[in-house]
Amino acid sequence: EWEIIQRVSSSGKKASLIRKKSDRKLIAVKKVYKNESTGDYYRELTALKMLKGVPGVVQLIEPEHESNNFEREAGGEADLWIIMQRAPTNSLKAFMDQNREKYGHNIEVSRAIKFVQNLIGIVKQVHSRGILH
């Protein structure tokens, strides 16, 4: 059984942060409502499947689950979902603020370089799989 922790929306899409009661693990889900076009969701799902295993990219949970197939039968009533890991809540600003609190100054150049190199590495892997962001 699941419990909804938080409902969020961005870019007109609705998602929820949910927790499985048995293990308390948080995951994110996006529901495709019956009156919505599945095109954008299908593209997102396809991209997430292509990015399986890329570090730093949110991963699908149960990517082959029937709710992730986005093929509604004509007149079908099945709910469609994208079930994925919870994205980290850290922002670049939060990272900078934490560094300032911990060390009493702005981020050191070496840490900033390492951070940016990590981001570039993620983007490079995403591009190598044929996805442009």
Task: Please outline what is shown here.
The protein has three helices and four strands.
Give a structural overview:
The chain has two domains: 1-87, Phosphorylase Kinase, domain 1 (2-Layer Sandwich); 90-133. 33% of the residues lie in helices and 23% in strands. It has three helices and four strands; from the N terminus they run βββαβαα. The protein has a four-stranded antiparallel β-sheet with strand order 1-2-3-4, with no helix packed on it. The chain is globular and about 55 Å long. 5% of the residues are buried. GO terms for molecular function: ATP binding; protein kinase activity. Residues 2-133 form the Protein kinase domain. This is Protein kinase domain-containing protein. It comes from Rotaria magnacalcarata.
Strand content: 15-25%
By CATH, the architecture of the largest domain is named 2-Layer Sandwich
What is the CATH topology descriptor of the largest domain?
A: Phosphorylase Kinase, domain 1
* Poorly predicted sequence stretches spanning 5 or more consecutive residues: none
Strand arrangement, major sheet: 1-2-3-4
N-to-C terminal Cα separation, in Å? 35 Å
How many domains make up the 3D coordinates? 2
Q: Quick one: how many beta strands? A: 4
* Shape descriptor: globular
GO molecular function: ATP binding; protein kinase activity
Protein name: Protein kinase domain-containing protein
Organism: Rotaria magnacalcarata
Domain Protein kinase: 2-133
Summarize the SSE layout with pairings:
Elements: E1 2-10, E2 13-20, E3 26-32, H1 39-50, E4 80-85, H2 92-103, H3 109-128
Antiparallel strand pairs: 1-2, 2-3, 3-4
Organism: Rotaria magnacalcarata
Domain Protein kinase: 2-133
GO molecular function, one term: ATP binding
